[in-house]
Amino acid sequence: MLVARNSVPWWALLSSAAAPVALIGGWTLAARRQPAGFDSAVDTISALAARDAADRWLMTAALLCLGVCHVVTALGLTRAATAGRIVLGLGGAATMLVAAFPLPDPAHPAAATTAFGALAVWPALAWRRPDRGPGAAHSDVSPLDRGPVALRPVVSSAAALVLLGLVAWFAVTLGAGGRVGLAERVAAGAQACWPLIVVWSARLHPRLSARPHAGRAAGPGSTRTG
Questions:
Q1: CA–CA distance from 38 to each of 30, 32, 43, 122, 172 (Å)?
Q2: Does the pTM exceed 0.90?
Q3: Phi, psi of 4, rounded to the nearest 5 degrees
Q4: Taking residues 182-211, what's their average pLDDT?
Q5: Cis omega (within 30 of 0) on the bond before 104?
Q6: I need a surface site. Which of 35, 41, 62, 67 has the fewest CB within 10 A?
Q7: How far is residue 41's CA from residue 49's CA, in Å, rounded to a whole number?
Q8: pLDDT for residue 134 is more than 60
Q9: What is the dihedral sign for C-alpha 96, 179, 156, 18?
């Protein structure tokens, strides 16, 4: 007998939901503390945590919280492939390094590049093959057996392409100038939201598992008395 069970813990849902709140809330509050002339559409997120920024602790704390959230989510997202979880955790650790090495520290660009890259490609490594019950035929896959929508190959690959495209837009804008802050916030915001979508999708599609038949619970040698 096949039964459905939820394999994503509540704390992974909490951490994935806290990630975009920390990031967006952090850059919003920190921007309000900057001197007149600061433009969120032009100035980067890193500028809010730079050593010469006003109340830089706000953005620093937000980045640290974001990184911790990604690591916790990676630990709890057992429905995703191991490679994707590792890269998601790497992106979280690199995000914490972004906070630990603020501008103008020479290590900051490397940490930021690693964070953006890892958080963009992890969906492409996180997809899983369809879940099938014991003894199920290769073609006998129900909608529930196909697993979470956000962890199916086509969806995961499409998400990675979109995230990589947003990072490329940010990189081009960073080199050419212009609305760098806007491009970075769109890319970073999308990267912060995707783990939440994946976790939510996984919780909406429980994992199938086998449950022993009630008549066999007592073992093959058991007898029934009237």
A1: 11, 9, 7, 33, 21
A2: no
A3: -100, 135
A4: 89
A5: yes
A6: 35
A7: 16
A8: no
A9: positive
